[in-house]
Specification:
Shape: extended
Order of helices and strands: HEEEEEEHHHHHHHHHHHH
Radius of gyration: 32 Å
Number of helices: 13
Number of strands: 6
Largest sheet: 2 strands, antiparallel
Distance between the termini: 54 Å
């Protein structure tokens, strides 16, 4: 028996080895996805969380030395025109962040100061007119994303644009999905209408944004219609055309674009959810004498609650990350819509790639803190939506079942 055991185990080992060797190809084929994900998704995410608690210090020989503050005074030329004359005054030597030789920049840990800071001390690096870096002492100073009222206004503006566009999007998508799946109505040409409604989702957001930007130009159709119906004047006092712009029009245009682009996609998802419902439930409701409205609210909507939750959370994530359309419509220098279309992602982008007053370098830490805060808000709102949209009847039923099983177990133990 002892001689036969190795011979019987050998084929098993060979089969296992062959199976393992074949599985290598599976790992090889899926490796590019994971490599790309680690490089272009995972690494930026983790680095954003790291930068949110840091501030970049730029290598400069003047750091820590006697620095100067430019003090400006108005003086006048012979013709009476004012000119700015600068007088340099020495500042005190400040405590600096020394950087290692050869390093262009260094990130230093500052805790939660990018999110919120209140107190006194030397704040971030600044640069005067002479190109010299210094740290400024401020008493009772508040800073950070949470303390900055401008950031909070931008958060509110982004949420407003998303809500105004999402309400008609989900309403129209749900209505069309109910019509296309209703056996009594039997809409003709459903395939054609589905393609037409879905087509805006195929085009890029930047393309659609530029199209509407052209419509909203002073010589565009929106202005011509507004002038003909008397909404705006054909000419102002200085002879130029009046601009069709304002908080309602600018934000409404972006909200309409988001609604128009995405209601077709939402409708397709809704149709798939409704078609997944057991037809016998609709037949039972019709036999009981329920009308179309009662079937819709009593059968269709409760059973596609998970689909509604998915669409709501997906739209929330996309809405809070609006960038393409507001940038195209409001990002041009001559566009009058820019001041009303400042979204969170636009502000983060501008803060990251422009020299900020927070320091001589680019404010990576500040915009990373804003991105992390946006992530936290999205997570919290998604959890709230999930809790509000969950099926409470099922949870109540499960609780009753557990309670009944517990009572049965106690009754069995008593016997």
């Amino acid at each position: 028996m002892s001689n036969s055991e190795p011979t019987a185990a050998a084929p098993v080992k060979r089969r296992r080895r062959a199976r393992l060797e074949k599985s290598y190809w599976g790992y090889i084929f899926i490796a590019p996805f994971f490599i790309a994900y680690l490089l272009f998704s995972a690494y930026p995410i983790f680095s954003t969380f790291f930068y949110a608690f840091t501030f970049r210090v730029t290598d400069n020989e003047e750091i820590g030395a006697l620095t100067y503050e430019a003090v400006f005074e108005y003086q006048f030329n012979e013709d009476g025109t004012p000119v700015m004359q600068g007088n340099n005054q020495k500042r005190k030597k400040v405590d600096s962040y020394p950087v290692e030789d050869g390093n262009w920049s260094e990130f230093r840990f500052v805790g939660l100061e990018n999110f919120y800071f209140k107190g006194e001390g030397y704040r971030y690096w600044k640069e005067d007119m002479e190109g010299v870096l210094y740290r400024e002492w401020q008493d009772n100073y508040s800073s950070g994303i949470i303390a900055d009222g401008a950031w909070m206004d931008i958060f509110a503006n982004t949420a407003l644009i998303w809500i105004v566009g999402f309400i008609p999007q989900i309403g129209l998508a749900l209505l069309l999905a109910a019509w296309f799946t209703d056996a009594k109505i039997r809409v003709r040409g459903q395939g054609f209408f589905k393609v037409i409604f879905y087509m805006p989702n195929i085009m890029t957001a930047a393309t659609i944004g530029y199209l509407f930007f052209m419509f909203a130009m002073p010589n565009g159709p929106f202005h011509i219609i507004a002038q003909n119906i008397g909404v705006i004047a054909k000419a102002t006092a200085d002879g130029s055309a009046e601009q069709l712009a304002g908080p309602i029009f600018s934000r409404g245009m972006v909200a309409f674009i988001n609604f128009w682009m995405w209601f077709g996609n939402t409708m397709i998802v809704m149709i798939a959810g409704i078609l997944g419902i057991n037809p016998s439930l609709f037949e039972a409701a019709n036999i009981d004498g329920a009308n179309g409205k009662q079937v819709f609210w009593g059968v269709t909507v409760p059973l596609i609650r998970p689909i509604l939750t998915f669409n709501l959370i997906q739209s929330l994530i996309g809405g809070l990350q609006m960038f393409d359309v507001p940038t195209v419509i409001g990002g041009f220098t001559s566009s009058p819509h820019g001041q009303y279309l400042r979204t969170i992602m636009i502000q983060i982008n501008n803060t990251a790639y422009e020299v900020s007053s927070l320091g001589a370098g680019k404010a990576f830490g500040y915009c990373s803190a804003a991105a992390v805060l946006l992530f936290m808000i999205t997570v919290v709102l998604s959890i709230v939506i999930f809790i509000l949209m969950r099926d409470r009847s099922e949870s109540k039923f499960l609780k009753k079942q557990k309670k009944l099983m517990k009572l049965q177990a106690q009754a069995g133990g008593a016997h």
